[in-house]
Amino acid sequence: MKMFDLTGKTALVTGCKRGIGRGMAEALAAAGADIVGVSASLEQSGSAVSGAVAALGKSFAAYQCDFSDRSAVRAFTAQLAADGIEPDILVNNAGTIKRKPAAEHDDELWDEVIDVNLSSQFILSREIGRGMIARGRGGKIVFTASLLTFQGGITVPGYAASKGGIGQLTKALANEWAPHGINVNAIAPGYIATDNTEALRNDKARYAAILDRIPQGRWGEPKDFAGPVVFLSSAASDYVNGEILVVDGGWMGR
User: Fold this and answer.
1) 247 by DSSP, 3-state: which?
2) What's this model's pTM, rounded to 2 decimal places?
């Protein structure tokens, strides 16, 4: 269907080396987009995600950026401009999580999570969004939110605060940029089998309790985000703005 076709578009996907980010990058490439991938440790060549994108017949440009360092994020956006890269789609997926009870959650843990999950995503969105406005062709920005955009979680106060902030940032940017033809939305994953949830999956009691609440009867996988990210990155969602699409197997409806 042509409304989902991303041929001729360039998608910038952060945190694309593994997990949900890799699944999103591959889905966007399958829909026709060329991919600009960035993460803190992404190989300049030979990565699994670059190979998958190439196998789909699309180009892949690799960058590294430490999203806990604001100056590094600004330098990254400057390098994109110098390289002549003008993203039509920005997928803000890079993130981190630090698990420790609130009474023991040190300033350093808080600062790192807020910088990676919220501050750097605002800076990147601001810079890419400014370019989208200047070009006058519209654009799509998709954040990765969380169930903790709505819930408080346990032993992850910084993560919960950052993802709550992502929900509000999504709405704030949508309010300002919708008149420019820029759609800003978010995807909120439920419990997904990725590196970030390894500790939960290794806790047999917690794993069982979580699984018992998911109506669909399974944890999610990166492939479950292919349809949602293509939808929010394509013309199919041109009248969708400021929304948080929950992809959780029914958890939030339980």
Assistant:
1) strand
2) 0.95
